[in-house]
Amino acid sequence: METLVGILRPTGLPPARLRGVVALLFDFVRGAARTVAESRQAPSETGVSDEEWWKARSALLERVAPGFAARYPLVRWVESEDDTPGEGEPWLRHRARQTFKVGLAVLLDGVEAASAGD
Description:
Layout: H1 2-8, H2 15-46, H3 50-64, H4 68-71, H5 73-78, H6 91-117
Helix pairs in contact: 2-6
């Protein structure tokens, strides 16, 4: 925490606001780590690989949620870009890594904007 506060203190944010940013960063990192940990546990918990699990579930989507694409066009749109993991990388771990990169960049942009506004 000392190191993080040392990195963020030059932003000029007041202590209460900086405390909130530190808590947000801790929670963000903890959430990403939890997703990766769960993806590592999944094969032993389910008995199938990450890829096999997702393929089995996606095949059932139309049966479980008929007309999903028509009912949820924005969800379909946001998932439309191919985000296939590299060979041997579990999908959930890949998605967690991508989400972390984007989320951290947006979060830090927000910290920068908040420090410029104060």
